[in-house]
Amino acid sequence: MHRIELAGLEVNAPAVEHIPVLAETLSEQINLPPDGVMVDATIGHGGHSFLFGSKLGPEGVIVGLDVDKESIRRAQFVLKNLACKVILLHSNFSQTSEQVHKQGIEEVDFILADLGVCSAQLTDSEMGLSFKTDMPLDMRIDKRLKTTAADIVNKTDEKSLADLIYKFGQDRASRRIARFIVQHRWNRPITTTGQLAAIVCKALGRPSQKRKARIHPATRTFQALRIAVNNELENLEKLLHSAPQLLNKNGRIAVISFHSLEDRLVKSDFKRNEKESIYRIITKKPIVPTQEEITRNRRARSAKLRIAQKQ
Ligand SMILES: C[S@@+](CC[C@H](N)C(=O)[O-])C[C@H]1O[C@@H](n2cnc3c(N)ncnc32)[C@H](O)[C@@H]1O
Prior knowledge:
globular, disordered N terminus, binds S-adenosylmethionine, two-stranded antiparallel sheet
């Protein structure tokens, strides 16, 4: 087991198989007192929480939420030796306020949301998120949800499917992609990520130089379906809405987003709250990873961090 250094702390490499994004910057921006209380709305493998938790004493508390049971299990392992109290809850962050209050905690010093998925979830065939490997077309991060990506792809009418790919994937070829999907499913249902990726590639034909250089042709369609299956934007809106009441004076909220739809929501929420003198925005422009971090951790390449402080 080799050890690596993260934001000045040495940790075991398997424990951070998912490398926390912008960890160093966050450590610089968020100073928790030893008895600080934080909510990690997306506990994942506990990477970020481990860094903050290492600075908390026995009076400190971390409340960690995740919709994926496997993430909770991994976080439990990573955080088990921290001095502070760790409460891990299998819950959607749209319920953050209720869940925190249920623990007898009224206000917190810090809320962190590191959106998206962990590296391990991308390769987990039960998640069905990857177009790089053929897996069942599922995409439910929370297995309690009823609708899978295959349900959407096989049952939605062509226009609604095109609208969904356009709205959540921002793919200008959405109509063509939807048409190809509908034509294909006429013969047999689309049940795997490989099948869907191949159909999208066929719909888009030869990628343009610009598209080829940047992303896989199916990236936007997969993003759209993942957002729809997991109600990602709605959940984020609920979290942002509940945050001001949950933060104590001078408490901070930090959100790391991975696509412009999420970032736009965070940006406008912070701005609205600043206008109403509820927040002071700490990051006038979003903080992005350095080239060195991106080289070390490719998943960081589209990350944007925004921080606000309750007034
Ligand atoms: C990028 S990972 C977090 C990684 C974590 N910061 C770390 O350092 O290990 C995002 C996590 O959020 C979880 N997640 C996604 N949507 C969620 C939601 N609405 N509520 C709670 N957890 C969610 C995913 O299951 C995943 O484990």
